[in-house]
Amino acid sequence: MNEKQLKHLLSEMSLREKIGQMIQLTGVYFDEQAVLTGAVGEDLPPEWIIKYAGSVLGMIGADKIYEVQKKYVEEHPHHIPLLFMADIIHGCRTIFPIPLGQACSFHPELVRKAAMSAASEASSQGIKATFSPMIDVSRDPRWGRIMESFGEDPYLNGVMGRAMLEGYQKSEISKDGYEEKHFSREISDDGMAGCLKHFAGYGAVNAGREYNDVEISQRTFTEQYLKPFRMALKARPAMVMSAFNAIDRKPVSGNKELLKHVLREQEGFEGVIISDWGSIGQLEEQRVVSGQKEAAYAAAEAGVDIDMMSPAYMFWLEELVKNGDLPEALIDECVWRILEMKNRLGLFENPFSGIKQNIVISPDVKSTAFQLACESCVLLKNENILPLKHKEKVFWVGPYVKSQELLSRWAIFGKHSDVDTIQEALNKKEIQAECIQGCSILSDEECKIWQAKAPYVTEKDYNTENLSLDRIGADDTVVMVLGEHEAQSGEAASRAFLSLPKEQMELFERITERTSRIITVILTGRPLDLRRISEKSRAVLIVWRPGTLGAEAIVSLIYGMESPSGKLSVSIPWCVGQVPISYWDMTTGHLFSKSNPDDRFVSRYMDIPNTPLYPFGYGLTYTSFEISDFHVYAAENENVCVSCKVENTGAVPGAEVIQCYAETICAPVVRPAKELIRFKKVFLKPGEKIGVNFTVGCEKFSFYGKNMERINRGFQVRIIIGNSSSNEADSCVIQL
Ligand code: GLC
Q1: d(C-alpha 292, C-alpha 724), whole Å
Q2: Fewest CB atoms within 10 Å of the CB: 72, 108, 659, 732?
Q3: Residue 191 and residue 166: Cα distance in Å, rounded?
Q4: Nearest CA to ligand 1 atom 12
Q5: 3-344 sits in which CATH class?
Q6: Tens digit of pLDDT for each residue in 380-427?
Q7: Ligand 1 centroid to 142 CA: how many Å?
Q8: pTM of this prediction?
Q9: Nearest of 303, 261, 255 to residue 282 by alpha carbon
Q10: Domain 625-735, what architecture?
Q11: What is the atom index within ligand 1 of the atom nearest the CA of 198?
Q12: Where in the chain is the domain with CATH 3.40.50.1700?
């Protein structure tokens, strides 16, 4: 439709039709098999709401959606199509690594390609909008949703979030990379609307406790937590989701200053603001309104266009408009944005846009999933034991060796039956290995805590396996595959400890008594306390939740068919007592100095180091690289130009991530210790040497002064080049 036709449609709609567009219902009202990702209240929606609802979440299936849409469009007075939305977080049927792992690839083009595949699969099954990418800066591994984020760095969240969004919406990508982007107004038939979430600050919940309050300064919020949104908004997301939390004690879903003034007026967002599940209704629980009617008023006033599954809009919006408390013009503004989004998706011309028959996981998509799984894994330690040789007889031990549970709780449409086990992957590659499960992923007691089902293992299985374990000798090599259960990360999965499951640690200790030739593979949705694992393993590979092709990726990396290239998107803390922790923590007084480690009156813990076990940006490969010829100069056109050379000085091909950080030397306010400002992943053959160049606009170094005024001149920055946040190859100071 063109703008004139759309305006005419809006003018013809009744108030109830308009309010209907502002309501999103769970798919269970249309299909009992729909996936529930939130609590459904006891009050059923009024009949007219189901008749006029604008969108549905959690439903999938070409035939089902075709049938519901066909009936709905025929019966709707103006034949406005439903928009089917769902949480396609890291893949639809083909599951890619969790976003925390994808970020470790430092390969935005690959992340974008994976998102394009996810959009094609989802779109073929009738889903035309996803609640992704999640770009909440996350530096507290106690919070289970760290797995959905791109980690602790604002810039990395921004780059990856934008890449994923462009993949979903199939926006045109300009040739000049990820800086300035042209974008298409239309979202193609096999694309889907993206949604930046959760706006904003949810990743900073106090004590890592889910749905807790957030207490951060306006400066930290604006500079660190809003940064990924500012970056990804440039790719014109169809939606932004308002978060559950409050900022400065004002809950986001009723926060006009944040949604209208900051998001819309200051950052120029023109799309749809959708609430989180029930977050409008929860304004009452947060005691900033006295009931659902007031909640509806506050959210509508703040500019929340769609109410996801709370009673507020569906029961109160009509009365608020009829009583004159809310102008109908405000409803028209919200409905206009919703109609525009449906129009961008081409739904008026074709309400069944993109729908095809069953999903077939194509070879191309599988190869993308395999590559991204490989590039998401991070080699944390390797004392000359990896890669293993094919012929070497190896024991593979642990509950994940025969498990298909390599996905996550946000892989809501993925299928474990699509996943090869590690044992199957070893057999397919005809690798000599003896596979012993050794224990369950969780003990019975832990299953109760995590409301999870452990796979049933008979006593006989265990006895047989115990006999096999006893056959492991001091010269044998053992690959242990351990990790969290899928249920232990994602939404509503905060943990007070970062330990591996009890029985798995007992199994690990048993193996350490038999051999020192241990390689440990860790599956997890968050950083864990890996001190003991690191101490007793010759090599450690963290693979996050690697997705459908995870087993093939793990085996290929362990035997050197693929070379590890991942770099940590999040610090691995020394222990839970250290969190929240990030490489960009603010500078302090009482500076700790390595040259005086016993100095007591400095900023330190007395019982553990200040530094994490493994830092942001760190990761080993099977080769070695050298960074040289570092130069920095400030060009007249206000850009800072950085260049260096990188050479593969090892014997096998590999990839290195060149990272460029900036450290403010002195400023009127305390600044982060350093900030990632650019990165580039380069793939090099042995002996190959290439140049890497970064151009950084001066405004990228700016910050907020004492009165929150922007400062981008009159200070010095140290530009750092290296291959992790803690390994500097070179640096130099420039004046801005
Ligand atoms: C959940 C999550 C949000 C998700 C939405 C729909 O509560 O907070 O990230 O997209 O509801 O499932």
Answers
A1: 49
A2: 732
A3: 10
A4: 37
A5: alpha beta
A6: 999 999 999 988 889 999 999 999 999 999 999 999 999 999 999 999
A7: 19
A8: 0.96
A9: 255
A10: Sandwich (2.60)
A11: 9
A12: 369-578
